[in-house]
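STRUCTURE:
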């Protein structure tokens, strides 16, 4: 009996190892295909979720596929992060295992591009030590109570960012803190300053306030999101600005009998 148990455990280990190895091979094939389809310089990171992989591969249906690509250069931006979460994916086994052309049909795709603080600072002449942060409803209410525009209470905190940096004017250093409304339209990110204060929360001189509003106002086009995702949301996240959205019914590559390519 002991030998039988050992044999079963060894067999289970071999099957698990084979499953992971096959998944890794399929992920590599999908990565190369997506690199070509998305016009990337390097292979993106691809993870096919769910275990066991082989069960999904035989059916040709996958619950979730994650795609990540970092440090991309898009126009004046040098460190854009792209991510996509593909849900309910159909892909023939022959394509994923390399004996055919990879093709995927995606029921729903969520995509996002993140622009880091370093990239944003390059677009802000004279600003140093720039950072991006979040603010909640209580923080917005506190700014209004200190004399901020009352209409800011109506803003969704998810669409507001707390921006800060150091500027030198007439030989004097200031550290304005800007609450900015984040907007997205036609795939373009817009940063609209709504309130400017010192790092201590007190008002700054009017001239400094107006200059900060002009300096921190930005319009940024990060390029199209992967898989034809339509951008609908812009928010501060993890020290970056993230533009995101989703789309449905996407075909990537060629599927048998479809004659379509994404």
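SEQUENCE:
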């Amino acid at each position: 009996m002991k030998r039988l148990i050992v044999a079963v455990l060894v067999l289970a280990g071999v099957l698990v190892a084979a499953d992971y190895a096959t998944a890794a091979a399929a992920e590599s094939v999908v990565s190369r295909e997506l690199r070509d389809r998305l016009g990337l310089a390097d292979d993106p990171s691809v993870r096919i979720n769910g275990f066991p992989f082989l069960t999904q591969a035989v059916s040709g249906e996958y619950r979730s596929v994650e795609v990540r690509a970092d440090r991309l250069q898009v126009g004046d931006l040098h460190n854009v992060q792209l991510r996509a979460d593909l849900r309910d994916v159909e892909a023939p086994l022959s394509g994923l295992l390399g004996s055919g052309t990879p093709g995927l049909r995606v029921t729903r795709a969520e995509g996002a591009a993140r622009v880091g603080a370093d990239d944003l600072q390059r677009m802000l002449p004279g600003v140093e030590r720039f950072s991006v942060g979040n603010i909640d409803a209580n923080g917005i209410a506190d700014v209004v109570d200190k004399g901020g525009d009352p209409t800011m209470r109506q803003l969704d905190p998810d669409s507001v960012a707390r921006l800060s940096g150091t500027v030198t004017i007439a030989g004097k250093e200031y550290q304005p803190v800007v609450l900015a409304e984040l907007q997205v339209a036609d795939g373009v990110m817009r940063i609209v300053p709504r309130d400017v204060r010192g790092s201590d929360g007190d008002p700054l001189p009017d001239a400094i306030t107006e200059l900060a509003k002009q300096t921190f106002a930005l319009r940024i086009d990060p390029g199209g999101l992967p898989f034809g995702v339509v951008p609908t949301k812009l928010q501060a996240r993890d020290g970056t600005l993230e533009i995101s959205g989703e789309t449905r019914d996407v075909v990537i590559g060629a599927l048998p009998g479809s004659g379509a390519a994404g």
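REMARK: The helical segments are 2-38, 53-59, 93-96, 117-122, 137-145, 206-216.
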